Amino acid sequence: MGTFKAIRIDKAEKGTTATLAQFDEAELMEGDVTVRVEWSTLNYKDGLALTGKAPVVRRFPMIAGIDFAGTVEQSSHPNWKAGDKVVCNGWGMGETHLGAYAEKARVKGDWLVRLPDGMSARDAMAIGTAGYTAMLSVLALEKHGLTPKSGPVVVTGAAGGVGSVAIAVLSKLGYHVIASTGRVSETGYLKGLGAAEVTDRNELAGPAKPLAKERWAGGVDSVGSTTLANLLSMTKYGGAIAACGLAAGMDLPSSVAPFILRGVCLLGIDSVMCPIEQRRVAWSRLATDLDRAKLSEITQEIALADVVAQGARILAGQVRGRIVVKIV
Ligand code: NDP
Fold first, then answer.
1. Is residue 248 in contact with ligand 1, taking CB distance under 6 Å?
2. What are the helix (H) ranges across the chain?
């Protein structure tokens, strides 16, 4: 058995440390498929794990990284054989199971999704958990019955990973997208992705009224807190907001008024334990409903050695769009 390169998280006297290190193959955890990881990505949660700002990592030593794309090297799972191209998101990788910032990963075959035809491993990680979560949000809104005819949709955290992909997908589907951002200087970027309007996130950041003027039929929120409360209070009768993030906080200082007086729905989105069938649908929709040219515009590439430094930047809200990590 050999060793491989990985971003290793260890417990320190105060907090945790994250370093590029050699990891022993014998230390890989249980799983029936071993994958040669080719690409990973940097999500907000990775930033939390790398900096130790939130207790994401619950086993030490840990390999950070919550998602990867790569090629199966060995498998005893009936669905997978050597050479298959796969993508994997969540399932506790980088939290309780050794994760994705590594040349090798061993996981359960039941966690894997086949890379859609025509989508490269790099594209899959340019999308990453952030983009797949944006698609889960769009699917939830569609299941609720939302269509472009229902009215405008709002996307918060617009210049971030979830936000950027949500805007690109929703605009391609024909929605009038209102992008809410703290970086109004990125208006050109957001309009290029397909936003019809750009608003300053401060407009949605204060305490929410129980009900306010109806502005949108639906939305994708990666911010939480008072922003989500404002979104709900401004949602049209019968509309829905898909809540997937907490960039501004875990709290939700809202009232029941939007639910009981306007029939508004709050749709919870979880990417980590999402059932495999839903994942397959999300990845196949990403293959058709996300413009690849736009995806490459929002993506920057870094090396494995750069991951730790970039982890702090994403938490500081300094990363625009998506970061893809070249593993080999
Ligand atoms: P990013 O850091 O790429 O994007 C977050 C964006 O939120 C920022 O770019 C910024 O957008 C906005 N933002 C940041 N801080 C604040 C603040 N204090 N107040 C208001 N807006 C703020 O992260 P991701 O897109 O990767 O993830 C977004 C959120 O979604 C995170 O909270 C993450 O944990 C969550 N998430 C949840 C998943 C799930 O399974 N439910 C899966 C993936 C992500 P701008 O500059 O445009 O204002």
1. yes
2. 44-51, 121-144, 161-172, 187-193, 225-233, 257-262, 276-289, 292-298, 307-315
Ligand 1: which of 43, 48, 164, 165 to mutate, most ligand atoms within 8 Å of CB? 43
How many domains, in total, are found in the chain?
2
Q: 34: Cβ below 6 Å to ligand 1?
A: no
DSSP H or E stretch at residue 239: strand 235-243
Q: Is residue 101 part of a domain?
A: yes
Ligand 1 test: best mutation among 41, 44, 193, most atoms within 8 Å of CB? Answer: 44
Average of per-residue pLDDT across 73-101: 98
In terms of residue numbers, what domain contains 161? 130-268
User: Model's pTM, two decimal places?
Assistant: 0.96
The residue-averaged pLDDT of 59-68 equals 97
Any atom of ligand 1 within 6 Å of the Cβ of 314: yes
Whether the CB-CB separation of 304 and 23 falls below 8 Å is answered with no
The residue-averaged pLDDT of 268-295 equals: 96
pLDDT digits (tens, 9 = 90+) for 199-214: 999 999 999 999 999 9
